[in-house]
Design brief:
The chain is of the alpha/beta class. It contains 9 helices and 14 strands.
């Protein structure tokens, strides 16, 4: 075979699949042909083998340690992304209760979750930010919760609109279900405030193909036996996420990312400090531009993961993206539904990437007046 051509790495601001920690990629590269002590790639070994069992348990234990997971919670590794969970959660948690499910709508992904839940049973919108084009999240006083809801669903961080909850909303004793796909492991959370936390991996946790579900054990009893096996949380929990062949390589990568967070970053509190510093740097440039860059989210609800903004005209936005690419800054185009610019600065985005983007923003505004 011809010698490989080495392509320099760019600063990848994609919303997902997103940037992964370089040390994780390098370790996966070293171990790709043969998992240590195994003599075969992790992609080649049986999911029933002792070697993969060790990979699975390492990933679970590291996630549990990072989250400070209470003993009455289980970690499941599933497939289908957040979109399958939009259906699977109401199937397991709402079906058979005769109770409605409350949904807090703070952006596009919350609306997608609601749409799927409506196929399963009665839903109630506890709050909808549509009137302000989803530029903020609600206060507890603004929530109109059902008196006897089976669950309350929230999206902790909306990648498209760039808004984020600073803390969990107060919902009483009703199980709070959180789609944390885009900020999972980016900061400490009190897991005890949630009945379920779920996240597709391809933002902060690993490659696409695996979804992490953290579920309180008492909620497993709601999974009815009439559910198809793969759609039952109880079945997956009983079989330690091995009821079917799981995404073995993706789970292996989740374990490596968790190890990176523990050993090289120093835990979620330290990760949150770094993320807050990166976001503050970008928002400071945005705010100092005199309106040239217009952020979408209200300042008190700004995301630390997805910085969304507009330029004075669509033509300038196109020029901005072209110029950014020439500087090795890629995947900055906003979601097709809202346009503009979106800089996704997940855990693995280095400070150097944020600094280079800030320099580009300042230079572009200076040389391309509105």
């Amino acid at each position: 075979m011809d010698a490989a051509v080495v392509t320099p790495r760019v600063f990848n601001f994609a919303a997902g699949p997103a940037v992964l920690p370089l040390p994780v990629l390098e370790q996966a590269q070293r171990e790709l042909l043969a998992l240590p002590g195994c003599g075969a790639s992790v992609m080649e070994i049986s999911h029933r083998s002792k070697a993969f069992e060790a990979v699975l348990e390492d990933a679970k234990s590291r996630l549990a340690a990072l989250l400070g997971l209470p003993a009455n919670y289980r970690i499941l590794f599933l497939q289908g992304g957040a979109r399958l969970q939009f259906s699977m959660i109401p199937m397991n948690i709402v079906r058979g209760t005769g109770q409605p499910a409350d949904y807090i709508l703070t952006g596009s992904w919350g609306k997608n979750a609601l749409k799927e839940a409506q196929r399963e049973g009665t839903v109630h919108v506890a709050w909808d930010g549509k009137a302000s084009n989803y530029d903020h999240v609600p206060t507890d006083a603004e929530l109109q919760l059902s008196p006897h809801a089976a669950m309350v669903h929230m999206t902790s961080n909306e990648t498209i609109e760039g808004v984020q909850f600073r803390r969990a909303p107060a919902v009483g004793t009703v199980p709070l279900v959180c789609d944390a796909s885009s900020d999972f492991l980016s900061r400490p959370v009190d897991v005890r405030q949630y009945g379920i936390i779920y996240a597709c991996a391809q933002k902060n946790v690993g490659p696409s193909g695996v979804t992490v579900v953290v579920i309180r054990e008492d909620l497993l009893a709601r999974s009815q036996e009439s559910l198809p096996g793969y759609l039952s949380f109880a079945v997956h929990a009983e079989n330690n996420s091995l009821w079917n062949t799981p995404p073995t390589f993706a789970i292996y990568m989740v374990g490596l990312v968790a190890r990176w967070l523990q050993d090289e970053i120093g835990g979620l509190a330290r990760m949150h400090e770094l993320n807050a510093r990166k976001a503050a740097r970008l928002y400071d440039v945005l705010d100092a531009s005199g309106g040239y860059y217009r952020g979408h989210a209200r300042p008190d609800c700004r995301s630390l993961m997805n910085v969304t903004f507009r330029l004075p005209t669509p033509e300038l936005e196109a020029e901005f993206l072209t110029a950014a690419k020439s500087r090795g800054l890629v995947e900055l185009k906003g979601h097709r539904s809202v346009g503009g610019i979106r800089a996704s600065i997940y855990n693995a985005m280095p400070v150097a990437g944020v600094e280079k983007l800030c320099e580009h923003m300042q230079d572009f505004a200076q040389h391309h007046p509105a």
